Model the fold of this input.
Amino acid sequence: MNEFCQDRDLLGLEPGLFLSLGPTGSQLIARSDGQLSGTTFTSASADFTAAGVQAGMVLTVTTTIPSEGRAYEIVAVDSAQQLTVSVLRADASAPPIAPPAAANLSFRVITYQVQIHRISDALAEKLRALAEAAPVAAEAHVDSAQLCQTAAYGAAASVLLAKAESPGLTDPNWAKAERYQQDFTRMQMQLRLAIDADGDGFAERTRTLGNVTLRRT
Done:
């Protein structure tokens, strides 16, 4: 399946999505024996590997009040009981930033992979249609920061819409969902498929995703 963004990208937009389990989130693991030291997070009772925890997901830790928890991006799954974590970085390739040390932490990992995959698949279908028209081989595609951000906005809109209790701007989740959906639509129109046919580093042709219409068959 396609995944043009990760949970860490949603964390940058809406940290609150990871402080409580909403109707569309999937909780992979929850324990109460977490230990933070530098960028290393450990839990003797956990099995992060069996739970399906992956780099790019989000770890939420709390002491006593869940709503006052802190969320960190998971940089790597080092073993069944150990993660490398970081304060959210502007660049995912930058070195991990150590959170404050702490012990006896309650923690959980919530993911929105279902929404991320759904939005990513829709964008991938548009790219596929453009590639066929170009033509460009699918393996020649390279994900971009713009594509990642677009997917994140689409996924955030989907999650917040599901969390909304009633339609209308009086519901903060609905209002946020509307804003993210509008931005998602606008950002799709700005995405371009750049075609560098001769490999010289300069695109000879570009095509916009705004000109592609998806058809259900």
In short: Residues 26-111 form one domain. Residues 210-217 have pLDDT under 50 and may be disordered. DSSP finds five helices and eight strands in the chain.
